[in-house]
């Protein structure tokens, strides 16, 4: 390692002009901290940079393990990485050509700032450890893939004041790391495991995750809360976007039989997917656009702004205060689109993207108008693999503690419900309720179908004017 560094310094010195010579020293801890300050806006974001490194390197999955004093990351990149070469490239402070390494180096520097006593990365034959005293290289014959570890300081090594506690900061950072993984990797195309638990990834989200409309009472009705359609879009002149990324079955041939289910378009045959649009039915939620890079959602913004006439026209077409449609648009971005923080997108207009997607949205709504005649309605209300924060729910723990207080009341209530169930089953056995129930179901279905068709007709007519 020292020979490579000496050769590099000699080659750089040969290109310059000798003015003077002397000695100086560097503080490795302060150097890493300064580098990290220019890398990520928050310390906990280094974990999502590791996710991006795994996705960009072609790894099929990534695993995070949160221990008491250590955070471990492990994945198997398709690229051939060497621990010593990674250190050399990191020390040169030059941005590597490979996107995976750019993400990786940002993650390493972010972890170095994040209250870590030691960071280390391992490849198939070597281990690099970096502490306050500098880097060291060791042999590692047992490793089978790339892994990274950030070790926290011992509690005895933490000095705290009355109001400023390093332990509190350490806990807050761990919470930020968890939250970053939960919030920013929903559209990741590879499997993510946190402490052995798989995080579900999908372009579909629960409607409560969409941005709320301002100045509305959150306790008011929020509509159907369903996914109507998931639409991949091609030929936008943008970067390709992985699709599909969840386990939900995609549509094949349009079948007029069966239940009315959410439309999930298959991969188009005319090119790679460059955008994904999800159409929801819900109230008090705003349409949004999500900028994704290598499996991480960097930024989500309101899509239909009032200052753009065309976007405002789309907003008025989708909303009526009773049966609103909400759009959730995903597009991929590259390094040139990012600001200096690497976690936000430079300002750009959304209208060209949406206008190119609008014809596909219209075709999906026309398909919805045909399918809504099916019975029963079985529209999706949540992603195929719901995403929850790892760990036990505090509410469940507290609920278990107080359950014994309500057991006698639960027994009495169960007895009353059981008696009602027996009576209802006796009436059902006579067959008197079947025609009545069938008429009620048919009436409800016909009413829902008529209302949805009328609403879709209005939206489609307005979209026709926008596209003309």
Widest β-sheet, arrangement of strands: 5-4-3-6-2-1-7-8
Summed over residues and divided by their number, the pLDDT gives a mean of 82
**Low-confidence runs (pLDDT<50, min 5 residues)?**
160-165, 391-404
Strand % is 15-25%
Assign the structural class, choosing from mainly alpha, mainly beta, alpha/beta, alpha+beta, or little secondary structure.
alpha+beta
Gyration radius over CA: 28 Å
Rounded to the nearest angstrom, the distance between the terminal CA atoms is: 65 Å
Describe the structure.
The protein is elongated. It folds into two domains: 24-199, Heat Shock Protein 90, CATH 3.30.565; 207-386 and 456-467, no CATH class. With 468 residues, the chain is of the alpha+beta class. It has an eight-stranded mixed sheet with strand order 5-4-3-6-2-1-7-8, with helices on one face. Strands 11-9-12-15-13-14 form a six-stranded mixed sheet. The chain has a two-stranded parallel ribbon with strand order 10-16. Helix 2 (28-37) packs across helix 5 and helix 3 (46-56) packs antiparallel against helix 5. Helix content is 38%, strand content 18%. The longest helix has 35 residues, at 433-467.
Short note summarizing the structure:
With 468 residues, this protein is of the alpha+beta class. It is built from eleven helices and 16 strands. It has helices at 2-14, 28-37, 46-56, 83-92, 99-113, 166-184, 309-318, 351-371, 394-402, 407-430, 433-467; strands spanning 61-66, 70-75, 118-122, 126-131, 134-139, 146-151, 191-194, 197-199, 226-233, 260-261, 263-264, 275-281, 288-293, 296-302, 325-332, 377-378.
